[in-house]
Amino acid sequence: MGKRINRPSNRPARPILAKVASLGDRGDGIARPIDAPEGKADRLYYLPGALPGETVQLRPGVRKGDGWEADLLSIETPSPDRVAPPCPQAEHCGGCDLQHLAPTAIARWKRDKVVRALAHRGIQESDIAEGAARAVLTTPPGTRRRLSATLRGRAKRALCGFRERGGHGLVDAPHCLLARPALVALMDALRDTLPKVLAPGAEATALMTETETGVDLRLSLPEMPDLKGREALAALADRMDLARLSLGAEESPGEPISARRAPRLTLGGQAINPPPGPFLQPSLEGEAALTSLVLEALGEPKGKARVADLFCGLGTFALPLRERGFLVTAMDVTPEAIAALNRTTRVQSTVRDLFKTPLAGEELADLVGVVVDPPRAGARAQCEALAGDGPAVVVLVSCAPATFARDVRTLLDGGYRLDWVAPVDQFPWSHHVEVVARLTRLEADIPTKDKVINWLG
Ligand SMILES: C[S@@+](CC[C@H](N)C(=O)[O-])C[C@H]1O[C@@H](n2cnc3c(N)ncnc32)[C@H](O)[C@@H]1O
How do residues 51-82 score in pLDDT, each as one tens digit? Predict the structure, then answer.
């Protein structure tokens, strides 16, 4: 009998020839081996950087869910959709997943992702009153006005960038193609200043928001800086003409180190002064795309028509709806966002945890429509309440297709019809996609699809 040689565990596995079948939800190629020995032909390999239709050589790694992680060694037959990544860091930086895929193919894939999520809940495209999901509305790169970057201390210049793809390392991103120029410049200045407040090897995060009065920077440092460190940060604020620089952890309102001007945004024609932390749409272009869909869904108000904006944040939709003439009730769990929105005195807004206490029953009675824009977890309890007692129109806005589809299912089961589904891509080159959908109540006294806008208006 031949001698069996055990391969040492640290020796790399042999390369495998494989065919990429599809892209997974996070943008990895999903490959199956070609000519694999019996028992291995069904194996799945998750392969960042590979595209559907490609034949590749891969090296298998550790187990991942129902398959294996793998490294792409070479591409034997490239996809016609493959393009040269515009960023030199694209291969390693986790800030982007799909720079190697042509923009038109990304748009197709993101639309399919929404359609697949709906199908998973038994909702076919033919169930959409418009007949199919709409094409993706894509926002251009270089438009991110809000960005969270990670910093790592070093003796001379800190690193400032994003987590490496599939790992915990940090990729310095000096020429980030996603961010607006003001944020790229600030990231550069942070590399110079941070060694004065961040020990070598220690990490911090910078939440940067470009507002109409300058950049609002919130730094989350592992330790509060001493006097010299504070002076260095004040000098940074001066040099970069920051509107505000505050220190604090993600959940905290932050302690201002420098407040030269109140950061200002305009929503629905109203000036609003955002506090350092709460949610904000990442680009003006994305905000405009989502807002126009929400306005399209609700049409023109008739008389004193009241709508609710649930999970309203700073009032991204509430204020434009008010500008259009609706009376608006707005709710969110973040007190700082609600306080800022209330200072505009344009809408009635309250702090409320809509996961625990959804708007329900009588509270829904005087509404003609509701906008629901929850975090990734979706709005299970709120949609259950709407399924029972919701108004004529529900506009669902989501950044997570799986929970979106679950919530649409709940509303359909509660007697709504799905009028249209519009995917929006405001995270170019990432695997993320957002979606807006309009649902209307299927009841005898509620107008049919074509009449809904007239009924509201
Ligand atoms: C995707 S953001 C949308 C915000 C806003 N509609 C916009 O477009 O700017 C989700 C919002 O849900 C809020 N939120 C998270 N959990 C919540 C909860 N349990 N109850 C109410 N609001 C919540 C967050 O504070 C955040 O403002």
Answer: 999 999 999 998 888 899 999 999 999 999 99
State the fold for domain 105-139+283-456: Rossmann fold (3.40.50)
Q: Hey, which of 279, 314, 399 would you mutate to test ligand 1's pocket, going by the most ligand atoms within 8 Å of its Cβ?
A: 279
**What confidence tens digit (pLDDT) does each residue in 194-245 have?**
999 999 999 999 999 999 999 999 999 998 899 999 999 999 999 999 999 9
Q: Helices (DSSP H) in 161-283: which residue ranges?
A: 181-193, 227-239
Beta carbons within 8 Å of 151's beta carbon, 6+ residues apart: 158, 159, 160, 190, 191, 194, 198, 203, 204, 205, 206
Domains 16-82 and 146-265 share a fold: yes
The CA 375 to ligand 1 mean position distance, Å, reads 6
Task: Decide: pTM greater than 0.70.
Answer: yes
Write down the architecture of domain 16-82 according to CATH.
Answer: Beta Barrel (2.40)
What residues does each domain of the chain span? 16-82, 105-139+283-456, 146-265
